[in-house]
Design brief:
alpha+beta; 2 domains; seven-stranded antiparallel beta sheet
Length: about 220
C-alpha cells in the first residue's frame, strides 16, 4: 500500500483502472461459468423429466413401476429437506435470531414447493404422438379382449398398418387417427376404436356409436 501511495496521482489512476478492469473481467468470467452451469443443469433436468414422463407412459408395467418409485423417492427427499430446514430455523430462532428463523422457514417452504412440484409434474404422462404409436404397438405382443372379461386373443401390430397374429375379417388392419387407435374390418369400416391409457399402458375402447364391435373392449400387453 505504501508503494501505491508513493506513486504520482496519474499512475495511481492507471493502476486503479487496470485492477478494476481485471476484477471486471474476473467477475464476467465467473458469471459466464455460473450461467453456463445453470443452463446445463436446466437442460439436464428437462431431459430427465421428459424421460421419466415417457417411462410413466410405457406399455411395460415394470418400467412404469420404476418411474413411480423414482418419483416417490424424489418427493420423500425434498419433504425431509424441508422438515430439517424448518426445525433448524426454529432452533436458531429460539437461541439467536428471529430473522434467521424467518430465512430458514422461507427456504424450507421453497423445498416444500419443490416437493409438491415433484408430486404433480408427472400427473400427466406423455401420451404418444401419431409418430410414436408404431413404436408402442409393434414393441410387443398384445392381448385383445374382444368380448370381455373372458374372451380374448393375442394380437400383434405390424408396420404399414398390418395386423399379424390375430388378424381376421374384423381386426384386419389398424391405423391411428386423431390420436386414437382404430381396428379396421376387411371391408374398410371401423370395427373398434381405442384410447391409450397412459397410467395402465393399455388401450380402452371408446364405445363410440359408429364402431361395430362389442363395447367395453380393451387391449393390454400380453403376459399381464
Amino acid at each position: 500500500m505504501d508503494i501505491i501511495r508513493s506513486l504520482e496521482p496519474f499512475w495511481q489512476g492507471v493502476l486503479s483502472s487496470i485492477v478494476g478492469a481485471l476484477l471486471l473481467a474476473l467477475a464476467t468470467l465467473v458469471l459466464r461459468v455460473l450461467f453456463s452451469s445453470v443452463r446445463e443443469w436446466i437442460t439436464q433436468s428437462r431431459n430427465a423429466k421428459g424421460l421419466l414422463r415417457q417411462q410413466l407412459s410405457s406399455p411395460q408395467a415394470e418400467v412404469r413401476s420404476e418411474a413411480t418409485v423414482r418419483i416417490f423417492f424424489g418427493v420423500t427427499q425434498w419433504a425431509i429437506v424441508a422438515g430439517i430446514l424448518y426445525l433448524f430455523g426454529v432452533v436458531i430462532g429460539s437461541q439467536w435470531s428471529e430473522l434467521a428463523q424467518l430465512v430458514f422457514t422461507i427456504i424450507s417452504m421453497f423445498s416444500l414447493v419443490v416437493c409438491f412440484w415433484w408430486l404433480f409434474q408427472y400427473q400427466q404422462p406423455v401420451v404418444p404422438t401419431a409418430d410414436d404409436w408404431t413404436d408402442v404397438l409393434i414393441s410387443r405382443r398384445w392381448m385383445l379382449y374382444f368380448n370381455p372379461p373372458s374372451r380374448s386373443k393375442p394380437i400383434t401390430f405390424l408396420t404399414a398398418g398390418q395386423i399379424g397374429e390375430g388378424q381376421n375379417k374384423n381386426e384386419h388392419s389398424w391405423r391411428v387417427i386423431h390420436g386414437k387407435l382404430e381396428l379396421l374390418q376387411q371391408d374398410g369400416k371401423v370395427h373398434s376404436r381405442f384410447e391409450y391409457n397412459a397410467r395402465s399402458g393399455s388401450f380402452v375402447h371408446t364405445n363410440d356409436a359408429d364402431t361395430l364391435s362389442i363395447p367395453g373392449q380393451y387391449i393390454v400387453a400380453a403376459g399381464r
